[in-house]
Amino acid sequence: MILDKYDKLILQTIQRQGRISNQELAEAINLSPSPCLRRVRQLEDAGLIDGYVALVNARELGLTLLSFIQISMDKHTPERFASFEKIVAEFPQVLECHLITGQSADYLLKVIVKDMDDFQQFLLNKLTRIEGVSGVHSSFVLKSPVKSTALPIY
């Protein structure tokens, strides 16, 4: 799908304001409501809009410790990787899981927990018990000066 200026404006706007009404969106991008809604539906159907979510304040839920964990695997086989990915996908503490290159690790996880005690329980009772995990290196986030879920639209 080739995006024109209205499609790009729609994507930029709904990334910042997911609950915006079609009327408000149409006004914001200087388009009438009917073609605006049609464009949004086309963007959804084309897979450019995956879905809509609410961003919940982690700190208000008591989730104050954010970490990045590098995981090394003992075997580099598709079966071992698939098994690991399936297991970590079930852990609500894991916000993101990335298979990476350029490091001694195979995976980079973004994990959020309540505190250091909670982290220790997660690490010792869940993560290190996954078959094939041979190394774990953790880094803890002190501050997040840039935080965004919006993708750049060119």
From TrEMBL:
Lineage: superkingdom: Bacteria
Pfam families, A to Z: AsnC_trans_reg (PF01037), HTH_24 (PF13412)
Stretches assigned to the HTH asnC-type domain: 3-64
Keywords, comma-separated and alphabetical: DNA-binding, Transcription, Transcription regulation
Keyword DNA-binding: yes
CDD domains per record: HTH_ARSR
PANTHER family assigned: LEUCINE-RESPONSIVE REGULATORY PROTEIN, TRANSCRIPTIONAL REGULATOR AZLB
UniProt-recorded name of the protein: Lrp/AsnC family transcriptional regulator
Species of the source: Catenovulum adriaticum
